[in-house]
Hints:
Number of domains: 1
Distance between the termini: 26 Å
Radius of gyration: 16 Å
Oligomer: single chain
CATH topology: Rossmann fold
Amino acid sequence: MTTRLQTLALAGPAGALEAVLHEREGNVHDLVALVCHPHPLYRGTMHNKVTHRVASTLHDLGAAVLRFNFRGAGKSEGRFDRGEGELEDARAAFAWLTERHPQARRWVAGFSFGSWVGTRLAASQPSVEQLVVVAPPVQRSSFEALRSSAVPKLVFQGTADDICPLEALQKEYPRWAEPKRLFLIPEASHFFDRQLGALAQAIAASLALPARGAA
């Protein structure tokens, strides 16, 4: 089936948000996914290679996928707001995607800083069916929302990550509420250099059944 990429400017709380929507022709989707990118102050944008690979993998599973730039990143208006304004940006993007596909099941994914934003969004939205967390910065940001959230959590972590180290995640992860699953990508760095394929395969394998609506 033919797919299409559409560049958008979404209305955000601090101005226009630059975004890319990846859909199939015919615009019939029963699954949508919002993907959040890494830290804007460290050149993180929706075009980051990990963010792009996560988005393309979710699209391959059948989702209509929306990536967007947080305020101040790329062509998005506004200024960096230490994760609070960025959460409101994510809410606006999620609302837009929900309005476009009101009957679809909803997933949220994020990489690094984006996983922190996506986590708080998913924990506050009962309609989110699945949360995908990649290399969460648990040593720098609070993931306390996941200690009580019942949203299903899939967590992907490189064993050679020196920015968001596995050791920090191993201390925090046991505190998160079920259901949850942790997948380790051997020898993968924070940006999954030479391991993007392994990350994509792990995501695709773990989400193949949920993408079809199966338990």
